[in-house]
Amino acid sequence: MIRHSPCKLVRLITNASILFVFITFVSSPKDVFAQSLFSGPVVGQMGSVQITASQINSLLAAQTPETRKSYGEQPDAIKTLIRNELVRRMVISEALKVDWDKRTDVAVAIERSKEQAIIDNFVANRSLPPTDFPSAAEIRTVYNANLAQFQVPAQIRLAQILIRLPENANAGEVKRALATAQEISTKLDGGANFGELAKQYSQDESSKDNRGELDWLNENLLTAQFRTAVAGLKGNAFSKPIRSPFGYQIVKVVDRKPEFTRPLNEVSDAIAKNLRDARTNQNREAYLEGLTKKTPPQVNDENLKAIRF
User: Fold this and answer.
1) What is the pLDDT confidence band of residue 90, given thresholds at 50, 70 and 90?
2) 184-226 pLDDT tens trace
């Protein structure tokens, strides 16, 4: 599942809530934002402005299942949403006190937002594929036809001891760094512990205190130089000092994972979602195309002169 950041989630919900606020203040008294519009416990307050759990639930109910699920997994995002809603409602309350909703440009924007929400919801409803689409057979067909997309490359986990060199190192700096790397290599040949030497010598702050161990990475992302260096390393074997853009590195292989294909049961939900999304888009385009073919939109060129710019 793709996880949204709290900020992105709040933007998604806030965009949807704009219509909620527009419709409410168009059809309700001015002090509506200083009251609890729905029953339920108050989950946030800013001065006299309150927001209830029911109001937040209404905003969430309008979102996709994926967005609601992401919110459930990121509770801090709900708190951020509540704070943002309180600020928005406070601003609206202030604006309504001076009849800002009576401005022509604001009234037009409100009406268009209301219409667009109706359009989007109506077309989305018309575009939904049948609930039994796609079938298990259709999912398997897509899976078998796209096995390469579900291939996970071989992975490798390395440990390193890094002796850094500046980008434009002079001959003296290179000589000293190489001497240090060779000294470490000699100690390793003598049976010294790789992790202890990494902690003592390595200049990679992110890994030195973890025995020099790095995160898993796809083996095909290694440069040819490093692939060659680690190809024959097994057990506690380590490489000779390798010159890289970062300096001199001594590496050993901590673990390997062979390449494999993700099984169908792991990816079937994602395939189904992609197929439903694609079919929904196709249905939407077909609906709009059919609408315009049935009743083509026409422009009256003669009356364009009445438009003021």
Assistant:
1) very high
2) 999 999 999 999 999 999 999 999 999 999 999 999 999 988 9
Give yes or no for a cis peptide into 41 (omega within 30° of 0): no
Percent of the residues in the chain that have a pLDDT greater than 90, as a whole number = 68
Type of residue numbered 88: R
Token readout for 209 is 């205190």
Q: How far apart are CA 306 and CA 309, in angstroms?
A: 10
Question: Which residues are paired to 160 by β-bridges?
Answer: 251
pTM score, two decimals?
0.61
Residue 10 · residue 71 · CB < 8 Å: no
